[in-house]
Amino acid sequence: MSAQILDGRAAAAAIKSDLTARVAVLRERGVTPGLGTLLVGDDVGSQKYVAGKHRDCAAVGIASLQRELPATAGQAEIEAVVHELNADPACTGYIVQLPLPRGIDVNRVLELIDPAKDADGLHPTNLGRLVLGQPAPLPCTPNGVVTLLRRNGVEIAGAHVVVVGRGVTIGRSIPLLLTRRSENATVTQVHTGTRDLAAHLRQADIIVAAAGVPHLVKPEDVKPGAAVLDVGVSRDEHGKVVGDVHPGVAEVAGWLSPNPGGVGPMTRAMLLQNVVEAAERATAVVGG
Ligand SMILES: Nc1nc(=O)c2c([nH]1)NC[C@@H]1CN(c3ccc(C(=O)N[C@@H](CCC(=O)O)C(=O)O)cc3)C=[N+]21
């Protein structure tokens, strides 16, 4: 018996098709949403990610604003681009591609982003709103995880979800989404300080593996039929992506998100959704 696939590429394609229609409505009203990216340095991986985001934009009718700075750029130069994008009415939302070069105060840069233009959903104000239950752009990867489960009919309400990892972009905020009344999951968060990781994993109806440790989740630690989402991205010596989930888990789990092809494409779709929703909010205010 083999797990059913939580196909992130298929779900992302369906979401992008829905967003294309919403963008068309906005454009009829004279509003073209625009996604900005700031890329600092010449990391090939980051360049590829950013290029992918702009390809996505073109596909759904969102305008692209690409800003690039050399790896030698200093704090002031980076902050100047952030101020420029905050002020630019053509920019509905934007991201500062991470990581930034060593020596840059990342938190200071991210705090300067206008929370209304925070396409990543990682601004302190928006994370605070998430804690408070107020409307805000949601962090893209966590929202991608929840959306991928929902679209495949995986029961979240009442489920015991074990989240592996406590990183800021994923692990920290996934429990905040899953424990909302609209999701109603019960969440255990485990991390490198957890005494018996396997004992927790075996209790899980849903495992979200976001630790960045290759093949951390082993088949013998997964309850038969559980849903397992592989969010970890490590690379082997050939540069190939290796996830947090051991391939043998496919024989035990009921549902499995592949990596690549799972949560990654969903992250990109959620970024586009944040931009479209920001444009819709702005249009509703302007139009009354
Ligand atoms: N401000 C900021 N926001 C981010 O969201 C952000 C970032 N910085 N820095 C880097 C990480 C990484 N990340 C990925 C998104 C999608 C895929 C993705 O779509 N991956 C494909 C495979 C790769 C491909 O097809 O090109 C997949 O999983 O199937 C991967 C990685 C976003 N990040």
From TrEMBL:
Pathway: One-carbon metabolism; tetrahydrofolate interconversion. Gene3D superfamilies: Leucine Dehydrogenase, chain A, domain 1, NAD(P)-binding Rossmann-like Domain. It catalyses: (6R)-5,10-methenyltetrahydrofolate + H2O = (6R)-10-formyltetrahydrofolate + H(+); (6R)-5,10-methylene-5,6,7,8-tetrahydrofolate + NADP(+) = (6R)-5,10-methenyltetrahydrofolate + NADPH. One of its GO terms (cellular component) is cytosol. Residues 6-120 form the Tetrahydrofolate dehydrogenase/cyclohydrolase catalytic domain. One of its GO terms (biological process) is purine nucleotide biosynthetic process. NADP(+) binds at G165, R166, G167, V233. Residues 139-282 form the Tetrahydrofolate dehydrogenase/cyclohydrolase NAD(P)-binding domain. GO terms for molecular function: methenyltetrahydrofolate cyclohydrolase activity; methylenetetrahydrofolate dehydrogenase (NADP+) activity. Its EC number is 1.5.1.5, 3.5.4.9. It holds the Pfam family THF_DHG_CYH. Keywords: Amino-acid biosynthesis, Histidine biosynthesis, Hydrolase, Methionine biosynthesis, Multifunctional enzyme, NADP, One-carbon metabolism, Oxidoreductase, Purine biosynthesis. Catalyzes the oxidation of 5,10-methylenetetrahydrofolate to 5,10-methenyltetrahydrofolate and then the hydrolysis of 5,10-methenyltetrahydrofolate to 10-formyltetrahydrofolate. Belongs to the tetrahydrofolate dehydrogenase/cyclohydrolase family. Homodimer. This is Bifunctional protein FolD. It comes from Streptomyces hainanensis. The gene is folD.
